[in-house]
Amino acid sequence: MTIFIMLISLSVFLLILLLYAWSKYNRYVILRNQVRTDYSDIEVQLQRRLSLIEKLAALVGEYAKHEKSTFTDVAKARSAVTSSKTAADAAKADNLLTDTLRSLFAVVEAHPQLKASENYKLLREDLNLTENAIAGYREEYNLSAQKYNNAIQVFPGLLVAQVFAFHDADLFELKPNPTKT
User: Which of 5, 125, 127, 153 is the most interior residue, by most CB within 10 Å?
Assistant: First the structure.
């Protein structure tokens, strides 16, 4: 009888342990998917930002034919954005885009007629809206990444995370925004 009670107790304990692991696994999958979705939102905005920068570079090119390095920088930025696979890579690409914007804005400052153009004003406004969207999506992503990272790092859940190979999500960190002038 004692062995029978011990077997039942062990079975109940293993069942509870299995249900706990199952619950944690599902929670981690949901959190990881939220991180991926939030990262995807950032990627969409980075592509929009890149498109606006390319338009701005083309507009600048009409006014400043000698600024070939700026167009090279835009090409490098495009390559970096399209090849980024992680949040850390995307942040590096975004920093490269930020540097490119600084170069473009320096050229604009040297050409007052460009700065006064309606096309430039519209592009600048679209770019500011996109920058604000990126900041918002980056904040959402970082909150999701933090929530996911906390979930897989605290005991006893970290044991389940290790068994199923859940890994930390990178935070999305950027340089200051050059369009906020």
Answer: 127
